[in-house]
Amino acid sequence: MWNTGVRALRRTSQYNINQRTMALSTCQIKGTDITWIDIYDPSDEDIETVSSRYSLNSYTLLDSLDPDHLPKYEEHNDTHFLIIRLLHDESQKLPTIQSLSSKIAVFFTDKFIITIHRCAQPMIQSIMDNLVNKGKIKSASGIAIHIVGDALRSFEEPAINFLPISILTNLHCF
Q: Where does the record locate the signal sequence feature (predicted)?
């Protein structure tokens, strides 16, 4: 079961005061001691709190907040860290990496998984609803593998649609 604490932050805009929300969700994975923390649009304070509680590497945290960062994998003090990008809906195509794709940072050990992202990620909710809540995944690494797989699949259809028909008709399965 997920617990969601939502805190509204105020930011002044050129028109009026807009509301911005950050969501911190936690989930205990059924039948395990593993906790999944999903952080959406975090503040520096949110990041510091999670960082100190789970002893996350400060440099990887900086990378996780950098909107331009490309995919990567590192391991620090038994904590796996990866950044994966997923393609946005094609209708949102613009000429920058941030507008073409979004980023999810993942920290995990055998005791926890932390996902951090700036914009809503339906993929996270889908993994939670269809796999974690139904007991089909019982490890942090399993969740991370599904996040990576779903992110990579987000590039498949646009890549196939980009290939000329002549290449597609000449592909042979081995």
A: none
Q: What share of the chain is helix, strand, coil (3-state, %, to 5)?
A: 35, 35, 30
Residue 66: domain span: 2-163
In a domain, 23, yes or no: yes
pTM of the model: 0.74
Q: Is residue 174 part of a domain?
A: no
CATH number at residue 68: 3.30.460.20
In a domain, 172, yes or no: no
Q: Residue type for 63, please?
A: D
SS3 70: coil
Q: Distance (Å, rounded) from C-alpha 36 to C-alpha 165?
A: 43
CB 138 within 8 A of CB 145: no
pLDDT digit string (tens) for 21-76?
456 778 889 889 999 999 888 887 888 888 888 998 878 887 888 877 888 999 99
Tokens of 89: 């809906």
Q: In total, how many domains does the chain have?
A: 1
Q: Are 6 and 25 in contact (CB under 8 A)?
A: no
> Which amino acid, one-letter code, is at 74?
E
Distances (CA, A) of 1 to 17, 26, 44, 91, 117: 34, 8, 26, 34, 20
